[in-house]
Design brief:
Layout lengths: L61 H20 L3 H27 L6 H22 L19 H12 L3 H17 L3 H28 L1 H4 L2 H8 L1 H19 L9 H7 L5 H11 L3 H31 L3 H7 L3 H14 L6 H15 L1 H23 L9 H8 L13 H6 L4 H34 L5 H25 L18 H18 L1 H12 L9 H26 L1 H7 L3
Helix pairs in contact: 1-4, 2-5, 3-5, 3-6, 3-10, 3-11, 5-6, 5-11, 6-11, 6-12, 8-16, 9-16, 11-12, 15-16, 15-19, 16-17, 16-19, 17-19, 17-20, 19-20, 19-23, 20-21, 20-23
């Protein structure tokens, strides 16, 4: 018979008193282990005869935790690389590219040494670098498991040593190395003289520390969000953030390569030089320019910002490790989640049509808000649909017809409608008994896209007209956009019936089952080509009006395009509806792989 050993009491705790007249049990025959007297605690010996040591982290000072957390970070990196060859290749490739890019930036900054606008460049660069550190944890929190301090909540760690250890371990990785190289290059570009060199040494330390502390504070303050379903939704939107960031960098590079050159950064630098950690870099230039008072104030401001970030981090960390999750408490309240869901559904349902059409639209909006894959698709469509026309307009060489990108991106949301339901499509299939049921189902899905698409496309066209000062072409551009949106709704409805495919749910980055990649490609790109061809009559009308000199009649493109797109959509829904009713088993099998 096995017996369990009760947990040890801390030294100094009083043992419970023995009942009067009780006698301690005698040890079994052959057992020579002495019985400890009352009030004396002995360590528990596991199998093997070695006493179990106390937890090394309990009350440990920073000197003990620092190497422990650094080894933990290195172990996480090493174990991550051992998982798959693809992950190992991606990490090594990203590391090589990051170091190579940082080295090129270092050489470029050294080449600007002595340039009159070098200080404006390095000040702006430091501010942009800090903004990247603040944003990246919100989208790539899964890349560093130590960003989630709740994993350590069961360990007896105090906030101070824990913060110091996490801060130092955060300096291990590609990002901190990249930041350090850019900080060194920025300092070398503007440091002239002994005082500037001394300030540069301080700045090289402050810039990475402020960036890392900022990332840690932001991640800790939002860790409940990052570890929830909405946090996973943010991770799916990271590609859109990168695309927007690259376009902004592209616009900035074009502005800098223009006539003004680096002088275009001076207005922004005048403001950013008082925003940490850019203040530390600009302080080096202040010492070099003979303004020690301003430079000392900037260094003090950077140090104060670091202290403020550490205080915010400490406050968030303490609350996170000691307080329960308020969202969980709210969800656990009797009827709390149900009341909120009914209230939200009722408010939206009041604006939707009655019957099956409104029910299908409500379900579509719920998918767009709750389902990560659907939400990522909608966000990408809205972001890219707005980004491309705006970027081309800002660059100066764009056309108002680039606003058709908004119609193209929104119209693609109509493709593979049943694949978005995955295997749950069987519940929809059970409610479709006739061609009329199928037509109402498809009409509700098309209206879901149109309700968002029509005002969005209108806004993008008007914004492009304002940026390009092309108000006379706004009506024709809007007519072409409506025609393209209607054509893509039509081809998307047909394609959803004829070429449905499965959207995997086990990965956030796979949008098609491997065995159906060719079908998905044919469905999307073939549908877009056919949709563009269906818009040819409206495009031909626009070209003919321009060639004939009838500019006063170009406004007719707007009603003609809107009517043409609406007619295509209605005709496609009527054609596809009976085929949906006839192919329900085939569609269910195709979307359930």
């Amino acid at each position: 018979m096995t017996t369990s050993t009760p947990p040890d009491r801390p030294t100094g705790d009083a043992a419970p008193a023995e009942p009067a007249g009780s006698t301690p049990p005698a040890p079994p025959a052959g057992n020579t282990t002495p019985v400890p007297p009352a009030g004396v605690t002995t360590p528990v010996k596991p199998a093997g005869g070695t006493a179990a040591p106390s937890h090394p982290a309990a009350g440990a000072p920073v000197a003990v935790l620092l190497p422990l957390f650094v080894r933990l970070k290195l172990t996480l990196l090493r174990n991550g690389l051992r998982q798959t060859a693809g992950r190992r290749a991606a990490y090594i490739t990203s590391m090589v590219l990051a170091v190579a890019f940082a080295a090129l930036q270092l050489l470029g900054l050294l080449a600007l040494r002595g340039h009159e606008h070098a200080a404006a460049l390095v000040t702006t660069l430091a501010a942009v670098l800090a903004m990247g550190w603040a944003v990246m944890p919100l989208f790539f929190s899964s890349g560093d498991e130590t960003l989630d301090p709740t994993r350590l909540v069961m360990l007896p760690l105090r906030p101070g040593p824990l913060m110091a250890s996490l801060l130092v371990s955060s300096l291990v990785g590609i990002g901190p190395l990249f930041t350090l190289i850019l900080a060194v290059g920025s300092v070398l570009a503007v440091a002239h003289g002994g005082a500037a060199a001394a300030a540069g040494a301080v700045a090289v330390l402050l810039v990475p520390l402020v960036c890392v502390a900022l990332a840690r504070a932001v991640a800790t303050a939002n860790v409940r969000l990052l570890t929830s379903r909405r946090g996973r939704d943010l991770a799916l939107l990271s590609g859109l953030v990168i695309a927007i960031g690259l376009q902004l960098v592209n616009i900035g590079m074009q502005k800098l390569s223009g006539e003004g050159g680096l002088s275009a950064l001076e207005p922004a630098a005048e403001v950013l030089r008082w925003v940490p950690p850019a203040t530390a870099v600009d302080a080096v230039a202040g010492f070099a320019d003979g303004e020690p008072g301003r430079a000392l104030g900037q260094l003090a401001l950077t140090a104060a910002a670091l202290v403020l970030l550490l205080w915010w981090w400490h406050r968030s960390l303490t609350r996170l490790m000691t307080a329960p999750d308020s969202s969980t408490l709210q969800a656990a309240a009797p009827g709390g989640g149900e009341r909120a869901g009914r209230a939200g559904s009722g408010a939206l349902a009041r604006f939707l049509p009655a019957g099956r059409t409104g029910t299908v639209m409500l379900r579509g909006f719920r998918y767009a808000w709750r389902d990560p894959k659907t939400k990522a698709g909608w966000a990408t469509a809205l972001g890219v649909g707005l980004l491309v026309p705006v970027v081309t307009s800002v660059q100066g060489g764009g056309s108002i017809y680039a606003a058709c990108w908004a119609s193209a991106m929104l119209g693609m949301q109509m493709y593979n409608q049943f694949g978005q339901d995955t295997s749950a499509f069987w519940m929809v299939a059970q409610t479709i008994g006739t061609a009329r049921d199928a037509r109402l189902e498809l009409r509700g899905r098309a209206l879901t896209v149109a309700v968002v698409g029509v005002p969005f496309v209108t806004s993008v066209v008007l914004l492009s007209a304002a940026l390009l000062d092309a108000w006379p072409q706004a009506a024709e551009a809007l007519g072409l956009s409506f025609a393209l949106l209607g054509a893509l709704l039509a081809t998307g409805a047909v394609s959803s019936v004829t070429h449905p495919y499965t959207i995997p749910q086990d990965s956030g980055f796979k949008n098609v089952h491997p065995s159906q990649a060719g079908m998905a490609t044919l469905s999307i790109f073939g549908g877009m080509v056919v949709g563009a061809l269906l818009c040819a009559p409206v495009a031909a009308l626009t070209i003919w009006l321009h060639r004939s000199g009838a500019d006063g009649l170009l406004w007719l493109v707007l009603p003609v395009g809107a009517a043409w797109g609406l007619g295509l959509s209605v005709a496609a829904l009527r054609w596809a509806a009976p085929r949906v009713a006839d192919r329900l088993p085939e569609i269910l099998a195709a979307v359930s792989k």
